[in-house]
Amino acid sequence: MTQHTLNTRRLLCPLPVIRTQDKVKSLQPGDVLEVVGTDPGIMQDIPAWCRINGHKVLDSHSADHEYVIVLEVGA
Known about the structure:
This protein is of the alpha+beta class. It has a single domain (3-72), classed as TusA-like domain (Translation Initiation Factor IF3). It is built from two helices and four strands. Strands 1-2-4-3 form a four-stranded mixed sheet, with helices on one face. It is globular, with a radius of gyration of 11 Å. The two termini are 13 Å apart.
C-alpha cells in the first residue's frame, strides 16, 4: 500500500473527478489516494464515482474551505 496525494484545488466540476480517475489508473489496488480540493462538490461527486468504480472511501472531511476525500483503490 502506497499513500498518494492529488491536488485539485481551484478546479471545478467535473475536473476533480476526471483528475482523480486519471490518477487512480496509475495506482495499484490497495493504494490510498488523498484528494484535496476547493470545490465542495467533490464531497458528493468523488464518493459516487468510487461506488460506481469499486473504490472505497476511507475518510472525508473539510476545513478552512478545503475538502478532502481519502480513498482506497479497488481491484
